Input
Amino acid sequence: MKTHITNLKIILLFTLVLLGTSFAAESKDQIKIKKLITEAYIEGLMNWGDPEQTKKGFDPTFNLLIIGKNDVLRRYSISDWIENVSRKKKKFPQGPKQKTVVNFVFVDVTGNAAVAKIELFTAGSLIYTDYLSLYRFKSGWRIVSKIYQQHK
Output
């Protein structure tokens, strides 16, 4: 009987540890990364916000990698992306018809490297699943690359 109670205590303790791990609070880095992605990427690029805020959040060598026709990988630089958004903003100063919102699926941080999987929604519909790579520089976190899946 004593062994049975001890085993139950061990199982209960193990279960509590597992539950505690799954409900662990976000790290400071995860919070910073989510804020950076929201301000620089979602508000800056997708919702045509402040280009200076966008520049702070992206490394100048950032590339969006796109699979093109015949499986040819193309690169789209952050400077080209900001320029394209600026043209749209001049043409439509009120901004996009529908704002884009983000759902953070996960943010995984290991030392100075991080990966974020996010879902982008417009008008309640999932439009993209993005995988962002980030590095922590002396000046802070910056997005260095992106791949994505477009949803129809």
The radius of gyration is 20 Å. The chain has one domain: 25-150. Strands lie at 58-67, 73-77, 100-110, 113-122, 125-137, 140-150.
